[in-house]
Design a protein that fits this description.
Order of helices and strands: EHEEHEEHEEHHEHEEH
CATH architecture of the largest domain: 2-Layer Sandwich
Helix content: 25-40%
Largest sheet: 4 strands, mixed
Strand order of the largest sheet: 8-1-10-9
Number of strands: 10
Distance between the termini: 70 Å
Strand content: 15-25%
Radius of gyration: 22 Å
CATH class of the largest domain: Alpha Beta
Length: 259
Amino acid sequence: MAVRKGVLIDITKCIGCRACQVACKEWNDLPAEKTINRGSYENPPSLSAHTWTKINFYEEWDKEKNKMIWHFKRSGCHHCTDSNCLEGCPTGAIKRSPSGMVHIDQNICIGCKNCIQLCPFGIPHLNHETGTTVKCTGCYDRVENGLPPACAKACPTGALTFGNLSELRALANDRLVELRKQGNYRACIYGDTQLGGLGFFYILQNDPEFYGLPKNPKVVSKYFWNILSNSFIATIAAAVIGLGAIFTFRDRTNNNSEK
């Protein structure tokens, strides 16, 4: 059995350079997005079908230092252990690689948007050009060949660390102890328990909600997925039957008019 891989995202080391953002676009051949000045350093404004990795900027007033400070956070797929998107995909298009990276098979995806609605982090997006949903793949093509994801490879400060997930968990705990000794008592690990443990997880400098992360994202039961999948199949079947009835009625009407 393959050893599960992951990425530790230590935002205390992130400088907002966006090298990871650029590397993701380059490796996955994603086009640039046309944007406008919105009065923010962030660009583009959000994840999309053409932006799978993005650095978010957050401002906070530091009372002790009496100045504004920046927080930077990489946003992208977390490759959850309990992946709602994977469990909820009715066609089996969403898969997990041997190393644990969750990706969408573009040859199977039908663009039903279940994953979009059910991801608690708002990661998958519909590609209107292809009619399929897309997101960060964890660079499983690189990882399965012994290479780190493009984002981790490009990070100049060590904010993104790729490796065996179990070893990264231990590294995160050691880093947390170090930060606490430095007086950063708000620092915390996010993703060690959420959704069974995230493959791409964080060391944060503030509460998860400050960064737009749900404190306790919910795992939807497989019973719900069965109902959802059956409802989806029933809807498709009803549509096919309905089309068949329309064509049958039309043929009968044409035959009667000819008589």
